[in-house]
Amino acid sequence: xxxxxxxxxxxxxxxxxxxxxxxxxxxxxxxxxxxxxxxxxxxxxxxxxxxxxxxxxxxxxxxxxxxxxxxxxxxxxxxxxxxxxxxxxxxxxxxxxxxxxxxxxxxxxxxxxxxxxxxxxxxxxxxxxxxxxxxxxxxxxxxxxxxxxxxxxxxxxxxxxxxxxxxxxxxxxxxxxxxxxxxxxxxxxxxxxxxxxxxxxxxxxxxxxxxxxxxxxxxxxxxxxxxxxxxxxxxxxxxxxxxxxxxxxxxxxxxxxxxxxxxxxxxxxxxxxxxxxxxxxxxxxxxxxxxxxxxxxxxxxxxxxxxxxxxxxxxxxxxxxxxxxxxxxxxxxxxxxxxxxxxxxxxxxxxxxxxx
Length: 356
Hints:
41% of the residues lie in helices and 21% in strands. By secondary structure, the chain is an alpha/beta fold. The radius of gyration is 23 Å and the shape is globular.
């Protein structure tokens, strides 16, 4: 799974990326001109993997992961510069839109003006404008085709009508046939999005933080998930050892890094869940789409297991923790045998029986 971190210039998106990935990319209060995108893979926090690892003492513990991409900041009205960003992120699964809600008193510059709601509107407009320009060019080319696709033309006109009204494609509904047509077009404004308010330290756990979240949720044509965090603080936490980080969080009266929420929300945004496998060699979380059946889930581990699938031995995480051991779970009838069509649930601990 791949998410792009985007934002207007000076929104603090690279600080967020550093905090997520543990990297140390340079951050400045002014636009950067680097043409090189940054990539980072992040573990999805999962207390179940930690708990099972404590029980099994495996050689290795493997968490589900998400890949994040950071690139140039967007500039209002700069279509050429912004297109470089959009061309890079056309194949991502979702977008994290970082919005500045902090003030840097050390910077005397017009960019120091803070207006989160205006910036959300500006970001949405740039996404919409990119899609609208793409549609207009495509419709123009279709005029020269001897046999243009009527299904595609009809879809493009439907999308154009929405975008002209400054309504992102994520607000539209598409039937099964339309979804087949729209998928290869790689629109930007159709992607699931998280609005991430990058607040100042003085607003942490304060009334203004919640007010900003509520106002952002009510902003024009916004149906995105809205979260708030302080990128500067999160980056500092990431650079501390676990004991120091806990003391720092306690001092700020925060239970866990806000980045954990961002990662978890990113994971759930795309309808993803994890099932677990356990043993002395490895405790591991495997990523699947919610609704996946047992046989297809087996294929995530190895194609041979999917091909030779016989049964799945399944127990929910909570049931296993309550039973304390697999033997006790069997005695209590908590360990079940499920067939190919069983819909795997989040947190299922599974042992696949197969024969090839």
